[in-house]
Structures are given as structure tokens and as C-alpha cells.
Amino acid sequence: MSQLKKNLTLSSGIPLAIGSIIGSGVLFLPSLTFATAKEDVLLVWIIACMMCVPLLFIFNSMIKDVDSSRGVEGFITLGLGDRFGRFIPYLLLGTVTIGMPASALIVGDFVSSLTGQSALKIITALLILGSAIFSNYQGVKAGDIFQKIVTFLLIIISIAFLFFSFPQESTRLNTLTPNFNLGNISTGLLLTFWAFAGFENLTFIAGEFKNPRRDFLLSVIIALFICSGIYLGLTYNYASQISYNEIENTQGLFQLAGVMSSSNLWKIIVTVFSVFALLTNFNSWVWGISRLIYSSASEKRLPEIFSKLSNETPKNAILLLGFMFLVNTIILSTSSDLLTLGLKVVSLNFVIIYVLSLLSFLIYKKDMIWRGFSFILLIGFFISMKESIHLLWYPAILFVLSQSYSILRSSHA
């Protein structure tokens, strides 16, 4: 079987990490978390960032004990066994192939609102998704160059928007004084983990670093603090200028741009920013998840056709993602309620991945200090899930599918 080569350096890892983390959440999380967490919204962002720091070290510790591109799938298998290990590819596939089309449709809605052409919503979404598929299909070098360019442009636009959207004066700053409402904090935390969903994607790329022990962790730590600053700043700017009864859940940055100026200039800038945010995010995720599909197929958890490499690239896996993006984009475009449901399901699924990772760490590792951190994080994640128990039907279906494929394959062996 062909192997993925170690081509990535720190300069490649940081753009991939930023792209994996910041992505689509920056478009709507400033408004959606404010609508959910209310006065506690800034507290929620700070707590989420603090929870991510020990989680990164736990992920990094586990990566050292698994092979190449197996990533989070591999270290969940170490502690929880093969049954849960084979579940992870299905859970992630069932998550990103909803989350990415949903995010693309939100940007498509920005373009549609700006131009007044409703047909541009789905066209824009498909073009953004198609760009990520195309750049990855061309191979590692093309994907790396593409990622560096769009990430650089994304950061420049982010800094400009943060500066120009900063409130000169505000009568609503009292709405940002924490109320310490546990219900609001827990539901807000669940949503913020969409913003930091990216660590698990990067674990599938870790095996392609030339020096993974140094560059993987450093790449993600740098990216975490850059992205946290952007999210916190945008949320502050939004919440200090938009009253609670005026919040538009998925139009956060677009709505903030309208407050900044009566002209369409900033709406245009936000739309361009949104496109770059998705391009860098989607390129990272297609890169990482295609490696997961490749690795899982090599381990016979998925059909073996996806374990083939062409020009050092798992092209069949990339084509599978492209097909699933197309189907789900069409389905989600039919209903705004369906789109909102998709966003909630995706957030819950990422939390489930973190919970399984921490449980595996507790079982597999013997370091008492880090096990203590893991236990505290688990409590936090369980609290964040309490308002979304009714959505567990979706990951349950994916779990059944993963076990059914394994049984079916065994019966034909």
C-alpha cells in the first residue's frame, strides 16, 4: 500500500491549523452565541478557549502513540477499542458533509442578499465547495500554496474588519456584564465548540509533518490564540452594537456590516471575507478528512477503493467528499429550519468526538495529572451537551451504520 509522504513544515502547519479552526463559524457564531448565551457570551468564549488548551496537549500526547494519518480515530481506538474506533470515520463524515454545505449556504445567502439574486445562494455554495475539492485533487503542493494564500488574505481582512467595526460608543455594553446563568453558559459552550472544531481534523494531518512532535502542537497553539482573538473581538463588536431583539442568528457579520455603514461597502468586504474564511477552512478539512477516509479504508473500515493514492493524493476519497457535498447542499438549501438543525447537530457531534477522546485518554494513559485535567474537561463537555440530548439520534444512526458495515464485511471474509 502506498504511504502519504511527510511534506509539511511549521509554515505549512500554521495556515492549515488556522483554516481548520476559524472557518465557517466566524460568519455566524458572534450573533448565534450572543442570542444563546446573552450576557454571558464573552465569558463563554473565554471558558471555551481555556478548555481547548489542555485538550490540545491531550491530543498531542495521544498522537505520539498512533500511526500516521489515523489521528483521533487511532487514539480513540487505543482506549475504547475497535468498536468506537471504527465509528469515528462515520461520525466525522456525517458531520463535515453537513457542516460544510451548511456554512457554504450561509455565505451564499450573504451573496444573494447583497445582489438580490436568490439563485446565487446555491451557486455560490457549490463554487466554494468545488474550489476546495479541486485544489486538493491537484495534489499536496497545490493545496499547500492555495492554503497559504487564502489564510494570509483572511487574516488581513479579519484585522481590518475588527478595527473598523469596533464601537466608538455604545449604550449596550451593560448587556455584556456576565449573569453567570448556567443554562445559557452550557448552550453557548456547545455552539462555541463549532469555532474550535479543527483539532481533530489536524490529527489526521499530523503524520504528514516532517517533525510532528514539534510542529504539530506549535502550529495548533499559535492558530488557537489567533482564532480566539478574532472570535472574541467580533463577538464584542457585535454584541455592543446590536440589541438582543434585533439579532439575526446566522447573519452575524453581514448584519454588523450594515450597522457600520449605510452603503454596501462593508457588506461587500464581509462577503469577500466570508468567502476567504470558507476557502481556507474547507481546504483544510478536505485535506484532513480525505486522509481519514484513506486511512480508514486501508484499515478496511471503509471500502478499499478509497485506500488508493494517485500522485501522493487520496483522490477517490476527495471525489467521495465532493459527491456528498453536492447532495447535502441541495437538501439543506430547501429549508432554513433544516439548515439550523444541521448547525446544531454538527456542534453536538464535535463535542461527542471530544468526549470519546477524553474517555479514551483516561483509560489508556496513566499520568494522574493529565487524567485529572481530562476528568474536569469531561464534566464541562457533559454540561454543554445537556440541552441537546434530543439530537443524539443522528450520531446513534451513524454508530449503527459503522457496526453494520463491520459485521457485513466479516460475514463476507
List the helices and strands and how they pair.
Elements: H1 10-21, H2 25-37, H3 41-63, H4 71-80, H5 82-85, H6 87-115, H7 120-137, H8 140-164, H9 182-195, H10 199-203, H11 212-239, H12 252-260, H13 265-298, H14 315-332, H15 336-364, H16 368-385, H17 393-411
Under CATH, the homologous superfamily reads Amino acid/polyamine transporter I
How many DSSP E strands? 0
Percent helix range: over 70%
State the order of secondary-structure elements, H for helix, E for strand: HHHHHHHHHHHHHHHHH
Q: Which parts are unreliable, with pLDDT below 50 for 5 consecutive residues or more?
A: none
How does the overall form come out from the CA principal axes? globular
Based on secondary structure, the structural category is mainly alpha
- Oligomer state equals single chain
At CATH level 2, the architecture is Up-down Bundle
Largest sheet: none
Task: Tell me the domain tally.
Answer: 1
